[in-house]
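Exercise 7b. Backbone tokens:
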């Protein structure tokens, strides 16, 4: 913005609207931009995602086929509303400490950061929730086979953790999640009493790790779990877990991380 403001000033000077003396005194400082924001009630926002690449009509045209496919799948297997799930994986830099602080102005040049601010300790979590908000226990993928932090944790958390070289959900990890995490949880919480033969639907995105999982489920006695995938380019607009669920999970994690760090300092 500062650079563009200077270009506008030069153009005004070229047209004779701004004098040479005014041009020399024009600095386009951050203060002038801040004052402009206050006068015009402007805000700075961080751009992310690809949500606005298409019009609402184009998004609707892409999703209409998926809606009909999901409706047919629900009717075919008599799936109840609470048995429709959405699952998505997301990366988390688990050791990254905050990089902002408050200090006296005269101390700012002497305040330094730590290596923890740039920690690349990556884990991936799988977030899964039903259409009525029932949450599947979160599963994690890391690089370490036996993390040192697992010394005093419960057996249930260890059961929901696995590892590979990339700490990401590949085909093998996806199969593990359905077999050892989702299927047992769904059977215990939903397939009981009159619903012992209940079926469910899991909505996924177009990740390559999900390809062929539907056939694998049927071949391994998990045919009551049916999969469907959202069309490309509509994930950010229509996938439930991307409407704030994953973001809030990360915020809560960071809040608790900072809280624990402060507790150690006091």
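Sequence design result:
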């Amino acid at each position: 913005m500062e650079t563009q403001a200077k270009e506008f000033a030069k153009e005004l000077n070229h047209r004779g609207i701004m004098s040479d003396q005014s041009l020399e005194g024009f600095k386009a400082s951050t203060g002038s931009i801040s004052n402009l924001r206050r006068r015009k009630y402007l805000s700075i926002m961080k751009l992310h995602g690809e949500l606005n690449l298409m019009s609402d009509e184009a998004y609707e045209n892409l999703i209409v086929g998926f809606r009909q496919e999901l409706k047919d799948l629900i009717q075919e297997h008599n799936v109840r509303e609470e048995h429709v799930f959405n699952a998505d994986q997301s990366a988390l830099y688990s050791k990254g400490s905050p990089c902002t602080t408050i200090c006296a102005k005269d101390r700012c040049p002497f305040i330094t950061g730590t290596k923890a601010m740039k920690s690349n300790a990556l884990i991936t979590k799988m977030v899964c929730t039903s259409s009525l908000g029932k949450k599947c226990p979160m599963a994690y993928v890391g690089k370490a086979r036996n993390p040192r932090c697992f010394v005093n944790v419960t057996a249930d958390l260890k059961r929901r953790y696995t590892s590979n070289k990339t700490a990401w959900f590949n085909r093998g990890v996806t199969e593990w999640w359905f077999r050892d995490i989702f299927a047992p949880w769904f059977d215990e919480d939903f397939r009981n009493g009159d619903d012992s033969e209940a079926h469910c639907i899991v909505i996924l995105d177009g990740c390559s790790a999900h390809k062929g999982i539907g056939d694998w489920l049927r071949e391994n006695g998990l045919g009551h779990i049916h999969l469907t995938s959202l069309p490309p380019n509509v994930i950010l607009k229509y996938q439930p877990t991307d409407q704030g669920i994953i973001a809030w999970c990360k915020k809560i994690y960071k809040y608790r991380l900072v809280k624990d760090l402060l507790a150690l300092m006091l």
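Instructor comment: Residues 2-40 form one domain. The two ends are 43 Å apart (CA to CA).
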